[in-house]
Amino acid sequence: MTITAPSTFFGWLLSALILIGALPMLCSVFQFFLVGLHRWFSHYDRADPAHMPRVAVLVPAWNEALVLDFSVERMMALDYPQDRLRLVIVDDASTDDTPDLLREKQERYPGRIVVLRRQQGGQGKSHTLNHGLDVILDDDWAEAVLITDADVVFAPDAIAKLARHLADPEVGAVMGFIREASAPPHWLSRYIGYEYATAQLAARRAQNVIGAQACLAGGAQLLSRDNLEAQGGRIDTTTLAEDTVTTFLTQLGGRKVIFDPNAQCFAEEPASVTGLWKQRLRWSRGNLQVSRRFHSVFFRRSTVHHLGNAWLGLQWYSTLLLPAFMVLVSVALVVMWLFDAGDANLLFRIFWSISAFAFVFTTTFTLTLDRRVAARSWRQAFVFPGLVNLSLMAYVIAPGPMHDLIRASCEVIGLGWTEETRSLLALFAYAWTSLCMLFAWLIFRLDRLTWMRPVLSVFMLVVGFGPFLCSITFAAYVAQLRGAATTWDKTEKTGKVGIS
C-alpha cells in the first residue's frame, strides 16, 4: 500500500487522534525497558536485614470472621521477633462472629494482639484505620505501622523484608507484592493474577527506577512513624483511594516510597464479575479524585520528589484516560472511513500494528517476571485483550490468511462477500475500540442473571479482560460526573487462600 499524507487539516487531525490513541501502549512498552534496569535501583544496597523496628500491624475488620482466623494465625507465626510485632485489629462494629473470634485470639496471644471496637461503624476503611492510628500513635512503642487487610496472609519473611528498607532514614514507606491466591483458582482470579503481575511486579519496578511510586499496595504498606506523624497521624478520608493519597503525601514530604517484590503476601480476590466491578469502580473513582487533588504535581520538576517525572505523568494519565483514548480512536477511524477509506485503512493498520507489538512484548516480558504467575495464568495472559482484539492484531500482521479466513467464514454463515458485507466488517473493526467497552459492560449486567453466569467466562474470552477494566474506568467517569456518593463497598471474601 502506498503511504500518502493526509491532504487536509481535518485529515491530519483525525490521524493525530488515532496515533495519540496508541500512547498508552507505547508508555507500557517503555515501562518494561525501565524494568530491565531495576537491579540497579532496587534499594537493596541501602537496606539492612538486621534492622527490625517495632511494628504495629493495623487491620480494619468489618464482618471478617471467615478470613481472620487464618490470617491472624499466620501473622502470629511470622519470622519476626515477637516482642517487636504487635497486631492491632479494629472491629468496625461487626455484626457477625468477628467479635467472638477476636476475643478468642486475644486470649490465646496475650500482649501480642490488641482489639479495638468501634460502636458506630460503617464510615469506611479510612475512618476505621484512623481509629486504630489514634491508639497506636498515642504512645511511643510503634516505630512503624503496617497497614493491611483482614484477608491478607503474609509470607513468613515478608515483614522482615519490608522493614529492612526503613534502615534508610530517607524512606518513609515500603510496599510488598500482593499475590492473587484464591483457592481453588477460578477463571476470573487467573485474569486478576496476571493483571497484578503487570500492575505490581512490572509497573512498580519501573517506578522504583525513576524514584517515584504512584500507589502503595493497600494491603501491604509499611509506614515509618515519622512519615505518619508528618501527615498528621491520619489517613485521608476524602477520597476512595486513601492509599494513593498516602503515597503522594509521603513523597511530597521528601520521603521515598520503595517497592520490594520479594516481600510477598497472598490475598483472595473477588470471585464474581459484579464483585470485581464494584471493587475496581471504587479504585477508579479514587484515582480520578486523586488526579483532581494532585494535578499540579504531574509534569513539574521538584528538588523534593520525583512525582513530576514525565514518564510517570504519561503513564498515570494514559491509564486513567485509556477509555477516552479508545473512544477517540474509533470515532476518528469511522469518520475518516466515511471520507477516505484508504487513509482509514492505513491508520487502522498502523494503530493495530503498534497494539500487536506492544501486546506480544509486554505479555512475554511479564510472564518471565514470575514463574508462578506464568504457570497459573499464562492462558489468560495471551487472551487478555479478547479474541476480537487478537483477531484484529492478526489481520494487520497476516492480512492474506486472515482475509481468506474472514471471507470463508462470511460465506459459510450466508453473508456472502459483497461490498456491503465488507463495509459492515470495516465499520465494525473501526468502531470496536469503543464497542468492546459496551460489550464488557453487558457482561457485568448479565452477571445479575444467575443462569447466565456459567457462560460469562466465554463472553469475557471474546470481549477481553482488558476492555472489561476499561469499561469500569468509563463507568467511574460517569459516577464522578453524576456526583455519586463517596461510599465504601466491602469486597466479600471467603477465606479460601492458597499459599503453597
TrEMBL record:
Keywords: Glycosyltransferase, Membrane, Transferase, Transmembrane, Transmembrane helix. Pfam families: Glyco_tranf_2_3. The chain crosses the membrane at residues 12-37, 316-338, 350-369, 381-398, 424-444, 456-479. It comes from the Bacteria. One of its GO terms (molecular function) is glycosyltransferase activity. The keyword Transit peptide does not apply. Belongs to the glycosyltransferase 2 family. This is Glycosyltransferase family 2 protein.
